[in-house]
Design a protein that fits this description.
Radius of gyration: 17 Å
CATH superfamily: 2-C-methyl-D-erythritol 2,4-cyclodiphosphate synthase
CATH architecture: 2-Layer Sandwich
Shape: globular
Order of helices and strands: EHEEHHHEHEE
Number of strands: 6
Largest sheet: 4 strands, mixed
CATH topology: 60s Ribosomal Protein L30, Chain: A
Low-confidence stretches: none
Helix content: 25-40%
CATH class: Alpha Beta
Mean pLDDT: 91
Oligomer: single chain
Number of helices: 5
Length: about 180
């Protein structure tokens, strides 16, 4: 069997909520949680976003869209948000389904994160496992790296998180 391979690159970034934006209620610190790669980071400041703000899943969705040619983030995700679908796993699933309709299978994911906070090292294992579940691939086919950014950008200064995602996908080569 012969395969055709394609690589996709995606990027996304969000800034952290500020107390004024959160419209704090007395019973809770934030109205939503920080979620990255489908994993809750307890006690951490959430992202500003219409959705759950999972910047890792957004970058991954964009990378898959780069292969399929069907942009999910934008009009499709905005429509989903208006319908009350704010879980970024739904956007990833939509991207994967469009790719599958075109015969593409995800074989490898690489994620790189730039942010001063939170601490990523203790959560990388959980993130890889959750991404493996969501993408239906072995977590060993997923790489996640993080850098603090050394205060060289607004992400490195702690104002938000930027993520780049790269995917490798394959499909059976069509012989003519």
């Amino acid at each position: 069997m012969q395969y055709e391979y394609a690589n996709g690159i995606g990027q996304d970034s969000h800034r952290f909520m500020q107390p004024v934006e959160a419209q704090l209620k007395s019973a809770e610190k934030w109205p939503k949680q920080l979620i990255l790669a489908g994993v809750v980071f307890p006690g951490e400041t959430p992202m500003v976003a219409n959705s759950d703000g999972d910047v890792v899943l957004h970058a991954l969705t964009n990378a898959i869209s780069g292969v399929s040619g069907v942009n999910i983030l934008g009009t499709i995700a905005d429509q989903m948000c208006q319908q009350g679908i704010t879980d970024s796993t739904a956007y990833l699933e939509k991207a994967l389904s469009f790719a599958a309709e075109l015969g593409w299978e995800l074989t490898h994911v690489s994620i790189t994160i730039e942010a001063k906070r939170p601490k990523f090292i203790p959560m990388i294992g959980k993130m890889k496992i959750r991404l493996g579940e969501l993408c239906r691939i072995d977590p060993q086919r997923i790489g996640i790296t993080a850098t603090s950014g050394e205060n060289l950008s607004r992400f490195g200064e702690g104002e938000g998180i930027m993520v780049f995602a790269s995917v490798t996908m394959r499909r059976e080569e069509v012989t003519r």
